[in-house]
């Protein structure tokens, strides 16, 4: 047997070993997550969304269309997740996908949400960018579901650069980075997210943000699911609990 | 049957234990290279030093020191793992809020580490690693600033691999600096008045205006240790299509085996990542006319890059 083939066999065997150990550890990770979820459900720890005055949940949802090509099931599931978020106290839900397809389905999402809103006290408004946030009235939990496209991500920062430069609407001549931060925080063009999401739910095969608005995800907790179908009410509660109770340690 | 399973399990345990040694690490990394694509640009949030020290009942200083050693160790095997660019989050601007004693210690440790890297026998010179510092270096002690500039100049011609150390860095400040720089460049007439994503990206720390290479802009993988699942103001722009790997291991315990698991998860996710990146590019192409930079802009960027390199050499007190 030549040295080259022997090398290939040895490396192949080592790779198989590494892959097997990784697979075993992934199974163990899955088991641990399942046990954590079980303990959480047993303790019946509920997250009271009203503890945070304006809970903001962002959802990245790529590929609403499953293999059979129909987006209806995906829209129903997404609407259900929005309703759950609202019932847990979310005042603002931001929906995003990197291809801009969600914006075209806003009508379907809105109808589905209206059908699925179980509680009389929950009112959800689905709108494209950018309507004003609805105001609370009596004991109504009012949630705004906003759908954004990639234009509101890096495109928004490019628009601000255009506005600040040359003959732009916000041009002030020479500026420092502190001026830029102040302008972006004030958001006069109203093209940035109003608040930083507390939790970002990522529904996609890959754990990638897909150019979600970069300015506002500094400290956002990220929770990944491979598909919408995996999502349950208790998983959402668990993710919210983790997001709201995680320790923020001086910028890390 | 039981004997066979027990024997098999023992072999697995022995090999896992042995993998802490160097020859087996080389073998594991060679097997990864042999079996498929490996990430070329790896970004790391080196988190968990203090918690690691607390678990071992050690002082936080020991945690930071051990974390620094782990980073240096990472440099020695990054070429074996086929990594050509590493970007590490060493110190955030927000970390200045920590107790003064801890901040002073971290600064001293950074000075010591940079001095070690300047030595001819260090991994940086052996592996021919080009080192750059990203961040607001005006906020750090002058000694560290000068040493960092010196290290950048001395290693600027190296072509082995790239190491970008984010020190006194936050992504928001980086993006705001880039926007301010583009705005001022347009006001001065240095750069034509056509702003797009690519132009803005050139003015980031990873951009060519700041001495970056093309490979600096897009990490293939962003690793965060210690179990936290947030970006903490690190590479918010550049990590748009990076595979995010959140590991429970604390940074001082990070080794090649943890990295090999990251590579396997990267390979599982790559097809979907590429698909999503293509869909995003398609959307941007439909919505906007062109993202390419005109020729005169590229020339202007070249001049700006030249100015930046001269400033760096001045900071290093002409020692290049």
UniProtKB/TrEMBL annotation, chain A:
Major site of localization recorded for this protein: endoplasmic reticulum
Molecular function via GO: ditrans,polycis-polyprenyl diphosphate synthase [(2E,6E)-farnesyl diphosphate specific] activity
EC number in record: 2.5.1.87
Cofactor(s) for this UniProt protein: Mg(2+)
UniProt keyword annotations, A-Z: Endoplasmic reticulum, Magnesium, Membrane, Transferase, Transmembrane, Transmembrane helix
GO cellular component terms attached to this protein's record: dehydrodolichyl diphosphate synthase complex; endoplasmic reticulum membrane
Pathway this chain belongs to: Protein modification; protein glycosylation
Enzyme class, first EC level, given as a word: transferase
Domain of life: Eukaryota
Compartment(s) of residence: Endoplasmic reticulum membrane
Catalysis performed (reactions): n isopentenyl diphosphate + (2E,6E)-farnesyl diphosphate = a di-trans,poly-cis-polyprenyl diphosphate + n diphosphate
Keyword Cell cycle tagged: no
Coiled-coil stretches noted in the UniProt entry, renumbered to this chain: none
InterPro entries: Nus1/NgBR (IPR038887), UPP_synth-like_sf (IPR036424)
Family: Belongs to the UPP synthase family.
PANTHER family: DEHYDRODOLICHYL DIPHOSPHATE SYNTHASE COMPLEX SUBUNIT NUS1
Full protein name: ditrans,polycis-polyprenyl diphosphate synthase [(2E,6E)-farnesyldiphosphate specific]
Organism expressing this protein natively: Rhodosorus marinus
Source organism phylogeny: Eukaryota, Rhodophyta, Stylonematophyceae, Stylonematales, Stylonemataceae
Automatic annotation (TrEMBL), chain B:
CDD domains documented for this protein: Cis_IPPS
GO cellular component terms attached to this protein's record: endoplasmic reticulum
Known EC number: 2.5.1.-
Highest rank taxon of the organism: Eukaryota
Presence of keyword Oxidoreductase: no
Key words of the record: Transferase
Claim: Transferase is one of the keywords in the record: yes
One Pfam family here: Prenyltransf
GO molecular function: ditrans,polycis-polyprenyl diphosphate synthase [(2E,6E)-farnesyl diphosphate specific] activity
GO biological process terms on file: polyprenol biosynthetic process
PROSITE patterns from the UniProt entry: UPP_SYNTHASE (PS01066)
Gene3D superfamilies in alphabetical order: Decaprenyl diphosphate synthase-like
Family to which this protein belongs: Belongs to the UPP synthase family.
Alphabetized HAMAP family for the sequence: ISPT (MF_01139)
Protein name, UniProt field: Alkyl transferase
């Amino acid at each position: 047997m030549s040295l080259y083939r022997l090398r290939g066999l040895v490396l192949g065997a080592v790779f198989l070993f590494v892959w097997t150990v990784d697979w075993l550890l992934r199974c163990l990770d899955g088991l641990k997550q399942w046990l954590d979820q079980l303990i959480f459900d047993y303790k019946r720890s509920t997250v009271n969304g009203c503890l945070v005055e304006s809970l903001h949940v962002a959802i990245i949802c790529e590929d609403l269309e499953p293999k059979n090509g129909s987006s209806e099931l995906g829209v129903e599931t997404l609407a259900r997740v929005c309703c759950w978020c609202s019932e847990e106290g979310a005042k603002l839900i931001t929906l995003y996908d990197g291809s801009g397809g969600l914006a075209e389905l806003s009508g379907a999402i809105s109808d589905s949400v209206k059908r699925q809103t179980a509680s009389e006290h929950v009112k959800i408004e689905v709108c494209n960018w950018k309507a004003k946030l609805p105001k609370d009235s009596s004991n109504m939990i009012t949630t705004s579901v906003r759908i954004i496209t990639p234009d509101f991500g890096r495109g928004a920062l490019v628009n601000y650069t255009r506005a600040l430069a040359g003959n732009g609407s916000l041009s002030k001549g020479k500026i420092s980075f502190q001026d830029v931060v102040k302008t972006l925080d004030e958001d006069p063009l109203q093209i940035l997210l109003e608040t930083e999401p507390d939790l970002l739910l990522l529904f996609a095969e890959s754990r990638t943000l897909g150019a979600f608005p970069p300015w506002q995800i500094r400290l956002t907790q990220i929770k990944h699911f491979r598909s919408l179908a995996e999502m349950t009410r208790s998983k959402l509660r668990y993710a919210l609990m983790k997001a709201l109770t995680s320790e923020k340690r001086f910028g890390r | 049957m039981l004997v066979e399973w027990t024997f098999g399990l023992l072999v697995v345990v022995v090999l896992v234990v042995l993998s802490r040694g160097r020859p087996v690490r080389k073998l594991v990394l060679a097997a990864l290279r042999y079996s498929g694509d490996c990430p070329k640009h790896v970004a790391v949030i080196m988190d968990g030093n203090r918690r690691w020290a607390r678990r071992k009942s050690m002082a936080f200083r020991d945690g930071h020191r051990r974390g620094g050693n782990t980073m240096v160790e990472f440099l020695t095997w990054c070429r074996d793992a086929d990594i050509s660019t590493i970007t590490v989050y060493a110190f955030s601007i927000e970390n200045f809020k920590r107790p003064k004693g801890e901040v002073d210690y971290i600064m001293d440790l950074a000075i010591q580490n940079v001095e070690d890297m300047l030595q001819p026998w260090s991994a940086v010179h052996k592996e021919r690693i080009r080192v750059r510092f990203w961040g607001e270096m005006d906020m750090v002690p002058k000694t560290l600033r000068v040493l960092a500039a010196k290290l950048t100049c001395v290693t600027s011609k190296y072509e082995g691999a790239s190491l970008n150390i984010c020190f006194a860095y936050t992504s928001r400040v980086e993006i705001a600096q880039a926007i301010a720089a583009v705005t001022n460049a347009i006001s001065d007439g240095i750069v034509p008045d056509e702003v797009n994503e690519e132009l803005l990206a050139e003015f980031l720390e990873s951009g060519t205006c700041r001495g970056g290479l093309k490979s600096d802009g897009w990490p293939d993988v962003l690793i965060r240790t210690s179990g936290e699942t947030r970006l903490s103001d690190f590479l918010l722009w550049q990590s748009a299509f990076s595979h995010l790997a959140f590991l429970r291991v604390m940074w001082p315990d990070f080794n090649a085996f943890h990295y090999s698991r990251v590579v396997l998860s990267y390979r599982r996710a790559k097809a979907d990542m590429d698909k999503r990146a293509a869909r995003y590019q398609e959307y941007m192409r439909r919505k906007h006319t062109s993202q390419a930079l005109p020729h005169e802009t590229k020339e202007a960027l070249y001049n700006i890059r030249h100015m930046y390199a001269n400033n760096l050499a001045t900071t290093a007190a002409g020692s290049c």
